[in-house]
Specification:
By secondary structure, the chain is mainly beta. The chain has helices at about 20-35, 115-120; strands spanning about 40, 55-60, 75-80, 80-85, 90-95, 100-105, 110, 125, 135, 170-175, 180-185, 190-195, 205-210, 215, 225, 230-235, 240, 245-250, 255, 260-265, 270-280, 285-295, 300-305, 315-325, 330-340, 345, 350-355. β10 (about 170-175) and β11 (about 180-185) form a beta hairpin.
Length: about 350
């Protein structure tokens, strides 16, 4: 059997050993020194002139005097002499002189606040971290709070996400069962971007804030503007759907030129407007009317207008607009009417437009 323990070199009591209490007391003494280790300082290279019984130090580099050749050792002053203990990797000590916790890495003592100790390659809290995600936590709630003034802070809480260059990414990735459903941050550029995905592969930008100007773009907002590229004939005293057969823009394909109707892709509040320009047929005395109609029957409140005064063909234009709450799949169409006489609504001067506002 070995004479000492492998970790702390505690002396073992040997078979048939005389004065066993001496060996036992020595082991207790070593435990007393290195267990819950606290030292007065770790920056002295020479022993103090008047040490006190039981004082402990960690010897600094280039040791001299009674401490010579014991750099890094724990020095104990006991019974009027210095005794030394060589640390192993993992020993920890509290340095009372500077209120610091240090650890021995097998070669030297290092402050636990040093970057070398904090350079942890991976950390998992409640789960195993992956190489691609060196920090991972599995929990139901997390809180970051500012350090209050009364606790020595300034009351603020700021979290910084940093990337190296403009084409790189920095931001938040929101997932469902580890499948990405949304992104928020600077992805692929310096513009602030909010994007969603149904499958984690194809993404749709909800809004993009330009880094240089701060201008907000909503690239997938349902919106359209359509025109009629031919004169629409309208019989006298008959509400007629205006054929809007061409679009200048049509995001989300929300306007259907086949049915001349806007079709709401999602539920929400929408704003619409239209302009109709009169073109006479046999008379220029017809009176123009226009309305925006939901699902072919319900006129949007405030979106019915008429010009009853005299007008000039190809110069008089009637404008209407209105806001309405729609369900997904609801339709909105533009209707026109000419009272007393028939006529036309002029090509390229008759338009219908709209967009989602909330």
């Amino acid at each position: 059997m070995a004479d000492t323990s492998s970790s702390l070199s505690l002396p073992f009591i040997q078979p048939s050993q005389a004065q066993k209490h001496v060996t036992h007391n020595e082991a207790l003494r070593i435990l007393d020194v290195v267990t819950q280790l606290a030292v007065l300082s770790d920056d002295l290279a020479a022993p103090p002139a008047t040490p006190t019984e039981g004082d402990r130090y960690i010897v600094d580099d280039v040791a001299t005097g009674a401490w010579a050749t014991h750099e890094g050792d724990v020095a104990l002053y006991e019974n009027g002499a210095w005794q030394f203990f060589t640390p192993n990797a993992g020993w920890r000590a509290f340095v009372m002189g500077r209120e610091a916790l240090i650890v021995h890495d097998g070669a030297e003592w290092i402050d636990l606040d040093d970057a070398e100790v904090q350079d942890i390659e991976a950390f998992g809290l409640g789960m195993t971290s992956l190489p691609s995600t060196p920090f991972a936590a599995k929990l139901n709630a997390a809180l970051w709070t500012g350090l209050y003034l009364g606790d020595g802070g300034n009351g603020s809480m700021i979290t910084t996400l940093n990337k190296e260059a403009t084409p790189d990414d920095t931001g938040f990735v929101f997932q469902q069962d580890f499948g990405t459903r949304a992104l928020f941050g600077l992805f692929g550029s310096d513009d602030l971007r909010l994007s969603t995905s149904a499958d984690g592969v194809s993404f749709n930008d909800g809004f993009i804030v330009d880094a240089a100007s701060g201008v907000v773009d909503q690239p997938n907002l349902p919106r359209f503007k359509g025109i009629s590229n031919f004169d629409n004939y309208v019989a006298a005293d008959t509400w007629t759907k205006i054929a809007i057969n061409q679009t200048e823009f049509n995001d989300q394909s929300s306007f259907d030129t086949a049915t001349n109707s806007f079709i709401a892709p999602v539920a929400g509040t929408y704003f619409f407007g239209a302009a109709l320009t009169f073109k006479q047929n046999t008379s220029d005395q017809a009176r123009m009317g226009a309305q925006l109609v939901v699902n072919g029957t319900d006129v949007i409140t405030g979106a019915l207008g008429e010009i009853t005064g005299a007008h000039v063909s190809e110069q008089t234009t009637l404008n209407i607009q209105g806001m309405v709450l729609l369900a997904a799949g609801d339709t909105v169409e533009l209707q026109g009417r000419l009272r007393d006489f028939d006529g036309y609504f002029l090509a390229d001067q008759t338009s219908f437009w709209g967009f989602k506002v909330g």
